[in-house]
What we know:
Layout: E1 2-6, E2 21-26, E3 35-38, E4 49-52, H1 54-62, E5 64-67, H2 69-75
Antiparallel strand pairs: 1-2, 2-5, 3-4
Amino acid sequence: MIFQYQIDLRTEPPEERKPTAFQRVLAAELDADDWRFSGRRPGSRRTITASILSSGLAKLEANALYVDPAYAASRRVRI
């Protein structure tokens, strides 16, 4: 599940900042083939990371639970 939101951290003073707003909420069951895993060398303490491939993103976007109409219009996203 992906929660994408926008936060105004720049407007000063902070009391005049725009409220945090959700842009979209996506959910889907992804398979191992929808991920790319970055390993690590033996002895490394770096955290193993994973990224969603375009196949996984397509599944998530096909099952959007919420898309802000303003976000969709700015990105030309179908609701």
